[in-house]
Amino acid sequence: MLVLSRKNGESLYIDGRIKVTVVKLKGTRVRLGIEAPDDVRVIRSELDDWSAVPSEATPSIAAVPPNEDPTVVDPSSAPTA
After folding, report:
1. Which of 40, 53, 60, 63 has the CB geometry, 3.0–4.6 Å to 36, for a possible disulfide?
2. Is-contact 46 55, C-beta < 8 A?
3. What's the domain count of the chain?
4. What is the DSSP string of the chain?
5. pTM assigned to the model
6. Rounded to the nearest 5 degrees, what angle is found at the Cα of 39, between the Cα atoms of 25 and 1?
7. Is residue 72 part of a domain?
8. Inside any domain, residue 80
9. 9 lies in a domain?
10. Residue 15 covered by a domain
């Protein structure tokens, strides 16, 4: 496991295709923003068996306003730039 330190607003890239940004720090909680291509499924680790979830049931990551805290975001409801 690679362990990195990042400050609020700093990012890191995974495989040149996935960007992870520290969006907000509050106490012991960290809010992360993830930008990934549509073919990359982003699943929270607390799901027991994510491989059982059909890919069409798992929407891609989309832009989320910073005041919201969604579990899964429906790309069709995401704001457009």
Report:
1. 40
2. no
3. 1
4. -------TT-EEEETTTEEEEEEEEETTEEEEEEE--TT-----TTSS-GGGS-GGGSPPP----TT---SS--GGGSPP-
5. 0.57
6. 50
7. no
8. no
9. yes
10. yes
- Angle (nearest 5°) at CA 15 between 18 and 29: 45
- Per-residue pLDDT in tens (0 to 9) along the chain, 81 residues: 999 999 999 999 999 999 999 999 999 999 999 999 999 888 888 776 656 666 555 555 544 444 454 444 444 444 444
CA distance 4 to 81: 30
Q: What is the pLDDT of residue 77?
A: 47
Distance separating alpha carbons of residues 71 and 42, to the nearest angstrom: 11
Domain housing 25 = 1-43+51-58
- In this prediction, residue 81 carries a pLDDT of 44
